[in-house]
Predict the structure.
Amino acid sequence: MKIWVDADACPKPIKEILFRVAERVQIQVTLVANHPLPTPKSRFVNAVQVPAGFDIADNKIVQELSEGDLVITADIPLASEVIAKGGHALNPRGELYTQDTIRERLTMRDFMDTLRSSGIQTGGPAALNQADRQAFANQLDRFLTKYKT
């Protein structure tokens, strides 16, 4: 199993948690982004730079993903593709998407997109806080305990 990170929008504190986990449990973590990313010197952490463009990083992750891999992303359509391919998706706030929850999230995302396109201001997500970081770390630990072989 590998961990893939949709790194263009992944918050720095979440990447730092992933770097520590990579060393602690000796699991491969690959960050995918359309710009260079600093990574620690580690045989378990690497970065892949893709060209800029709509969904290019997402497409690279889906292309490289193996069944059972974990993807860290807040991108609902990417999470849906990951689940459809047999992977797992965890968002930076600690929500592990499932076959059931991803449908609900896609519906809500589409609804909010419709509101925004009609001119209604919907606001964005709240800033990542300490509780979010803790929820992510806890869910990641639970996931790795259950699935890492």
